[in-house]
Backbone:
């Protein structure tokens, strides 16, 4: 027996989520329709509201319901320090796990010439304007440790250094709790080159 057209549409709609294939989407659709209709209605309502009301902060470009987000408005943040990240999810990870008290700038991606993504596509002209205001004294580069993330960090560090602003990169290497035999050679090489006095 095949699904009704509307059930098929729901399954296809759920596949837009990252990592959700046909089977996972089907499982989710059946769960919502068979066991949790109130949850499905709540999900539908919140999703509709979020899509209509959540935009981007004018200063840091993170997701926000306000024109300027709470982090950018906070008087407790160090305004001379700005951390560059690739996505709003990175902001949340840093906020939850780090003792970072500066501001953020969200690129919404990374440089990728092969995919046609250049500096203007990730808001670097807005970052340049922010750097030119004279308030920023240090930029912390927290892009991902991928080829594209490294290239993006290098490009931004040149922008920052040309303005005589300090640029730093978050540390990388062997994770706490990691065992050397399971660490790849590239990570281990970076850990050795970035070693510190103990």
Residues:
């Amino acid at each position: 027996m095949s699904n009704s057209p509307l059930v098929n549409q729901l399954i296809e709609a759920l596949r837009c989520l990252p990592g959700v294939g046909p089977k996972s989407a089907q499982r989710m659709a059946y769960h919502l329709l068979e066991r949790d209709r109130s949850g499905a209605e709540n999900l539908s309502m919140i999703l509709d509201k979020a899509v209509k009301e959540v935009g981007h902060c004018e200063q840091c470009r993170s997701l926000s319901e306000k024109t300027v987000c709470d982090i950018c408005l906070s008087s407790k943040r160090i305004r001379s320090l700005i951390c560059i990240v690739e996505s709003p999810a990175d902001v949340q990870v840093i906020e939850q796990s780090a003792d970072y008290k500066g501001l953020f700038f969200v690129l919404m991606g990374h440089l990728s010439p092969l995919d046609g993504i250049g500096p203007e596509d990730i808001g670097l002209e807005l970052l340049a304007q922010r750097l030119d205001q004279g308030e920023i004294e240090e930029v912390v580069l927290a892009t991902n440790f991928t080829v594209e993330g490294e290239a993006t960090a290098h490009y931004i560090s040149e922008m920052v250094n040309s303005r005589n602003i300090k640029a730093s990169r978050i540390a990388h290497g062997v994770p706490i709790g990691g065992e050397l035999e399971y660490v790849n050679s590239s990570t281990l090489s970076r850990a050795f080159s970035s070693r510190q006095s103990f």
The helical segments are 5-14, 22-34, 37-53, 70-73, 88-97, 124-132, 147-161, 185-193. The CA atoms of residues 107 and 123 lie 6 Å apart. The longest helix spans residues 37-53.
